[in-house]
């Protein structure tokens, strides 16, 4: 509750927090739009594959000429991480291999890292957190995105003495969405391809939101950060509005849909027949908590909390998340308090690449949101040697894979690179 004050004091000392942004896409642009109104925070450098695009993004979000000209624009994220005028590196590329490389470059340079790149975090976050600790810097999830917001809610619940029964977010989901491709994604958003192109919307990225991949990535990141379990058969996406969270997301033995207490889950804003859910949580996050005793349960009732039929389970939720508009919370927290806004601790699950259709030997996979695979959240024990969605881009199949089947690490020709080695490291450590 004191970040704004700490930042203002840093500004008064002439020592503002200096951030370097890697990736000037939508998330990064939303962050950039807020920077001019935050005392004690500066963006000194921006890295993007197209530096001119980064400069244009700054102008589009309302930066004045003086601020634009005072910022350095480069094409190399690792070079940005090594700069002397950067205290905190924000990795917002969305490419897991790039994210891992940029994070390691930042740690080598003694810089804090805010990982917007959930794809990288869900795949190897615990290893990156350990490397940051060894370097004496902070590695953090990105506030404004769902994993950090849920981690905050889980921490709040536990610090208040409650048991966390379930935690997660809402989304728009139907089972048929798993096979949607970039060719037919826009109809599900109520847009034409022409309208989406004019708005600069990436069909593969938006398809990853729809086909379940992004939900799987975010739920695994939350599980890894909060010590929660991933459902054995993958996310169930139960249709559920905010008034029913405590009823639906409780153990099956009590009439709910969870295998047990302490799990992640994503709720759908659509009933299975396509009807909208009443008071849905499509844009928000939640935590379901359990009273530790009869007295606390009675307090739930006395103070108006909606509960399940037993009176012991209640839900807290945020109906919206502001994505990059809230990212400065993480940047200021790691720089001024050396405290992450959520951090992966252990590998509780992974996101397996599953064939969207029958795939043939020799085909090249196109990764998250593409034509070939979607991501499914699985606990490590169930996943076995599954190919993670973060490594399922640009790799060639060695054998045929049936539609709906998870791919294994041995099904593809994997590059002998840092991302592959680090993934093998984290799953090996988790199983030892």
Report on this model:
It is a single chain. By secondary structure, the protein is an alpha/beta fold. It is 35% helix and 17% strand. The chain has helices at 3-12, 26-34, 51-60, 65-70, 77-81, 96-108, 118-135, 146-159, 193-198, 203-210, 213-226, 245-248, 294-302, 328-336, 380-383, 418-431; strands spanning 17-22, 41-47, 72-74, 88-91, 112-115, 139-141, 163-171, 263-268, 285-290, 313-318, 349-355, 364-366, 373-379, 393-396. A six-stranded parallel beta sheet has the order 3-2-1-4-5-6, with helices on both faces. It is globular.
Strand order of the largest sheet: 3-2-1-4-5-6
Quantity of strands, as a count: 14
The CATH superfamily of the largest domain is NAD(P)-binding Rossmann-like Domain
By secondary-structure content and strand pairing, the structural class works out as alpha/beta
Q: What count of structural domains?
A: 3
User: Approximately how much beta-strand content do the residues carry?
Assistant: 15-25%
CATH class of the largest domain, named Alpha Beta
CATH topology of the largest domain: Rossmann fold
SSE string:
HEHEHHEHEHEHEHEHHHHEEHEHEEEHEH
What is the CA-atom radius of gyration, in angstroms?
A: 21 Å
Mean pLDDT: 96
Helix fraction, binned, reads: 25-40%
How far is the N terminus from the C terminus? 40 Å
As residue ranges, the low-confidence spans are none
Would you identify the CATH architecture of the largest domain?
Answer: 3-Layer(aba) Sandwich
The biggest sheet, with number of strands, parallel, antiparallel or mixed sense and barrel status, is:
6 strands, parallel
What is the global morphology?
globular
Helical segment count: 16
């Amino acid at each position: 509750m004191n970040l704004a004050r700490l930042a203002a004091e840093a500004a008064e000392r002439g020592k503002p927090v200096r951030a370097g942004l890697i990736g000037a896409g939508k998330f990064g642009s939303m962050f950039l739009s807020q920077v001019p109104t935050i005392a004690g925070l500066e963006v000194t450098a921006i890295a993007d594959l197209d530096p001119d695009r980064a400069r244009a993004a700054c102008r589009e979000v309302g930066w004045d000429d003086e601020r634009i000209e005072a910022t350095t624009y480069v094409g190399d994220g690792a070079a940005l991480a090594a700069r002397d005028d950067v205290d905190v590196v924000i990795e917002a590329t969305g490419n897991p291999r790039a994210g891992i490389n940029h994070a390691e470059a930042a740690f080598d340079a003694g810089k804090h890292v805010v990982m917007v790149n959930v794809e990288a975090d869900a795949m190897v976050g615990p290893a990156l957190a350990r490397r940051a600790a060894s370097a004496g810097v902070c590695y953090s999830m990105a506030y404004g995105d769902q994993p950090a917001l849920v981690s905050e809610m889980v921490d709040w619940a536990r610090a208040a003495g409650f048991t966390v029964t379930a935690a997660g977010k809402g989304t728009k989901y139907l089972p048929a969405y798993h096979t949607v491709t970039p060719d037919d994604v826009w109809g599900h958003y109520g847009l034409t391809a022409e309208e989406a192109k004019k708005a600069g919307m990436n069909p593969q990225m938006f398809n990853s939101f729809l086909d379940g991949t992004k939900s799987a990535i975010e739920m695994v990141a939350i599980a890894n950060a909060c010590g929660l379990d991933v459902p054995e058969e993958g996310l169930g996406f139960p249709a559920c509005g905010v008034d029913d969270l405590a009823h639906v997301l409780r153990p099956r033995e009590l009439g709910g849909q969870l295998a047990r207490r302490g799990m992640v889950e994503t709720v759908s804003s659509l009933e299975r027949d396509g009807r909208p859910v009443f008071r849905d949580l499509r844009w928000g996050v939640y935590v379901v908590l359990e009273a530790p005793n009869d007295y606390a349960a009675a307090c739930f009732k006395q103070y108006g909390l909606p509960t399940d039929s037993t009176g012991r389970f209640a839900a807290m939720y945020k109906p919206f998340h502001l994505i990059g508009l809230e990212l400065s919370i993480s940047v200021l927290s790691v720089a001024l308090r050396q405290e992450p806004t959520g951090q992966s601790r252990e590998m509780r699950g992974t996101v397996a690449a599953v064939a969207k259709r029958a795939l043939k030997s020799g085909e090249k996979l196109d990764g998250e949101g593409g034509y070939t695979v979607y991501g499914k959240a699985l606990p490590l024990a169930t996943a076995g040697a599954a190919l993670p969605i973060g490594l399922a881009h640009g790799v060639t199949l060695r054998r045929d894979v049936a539609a709906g089947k998870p791919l294994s690490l041995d099904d593809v020709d994997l590059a002998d690179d840092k991302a592959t080695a680090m993934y093998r490291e984290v799953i090996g450590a988790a199983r030892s």
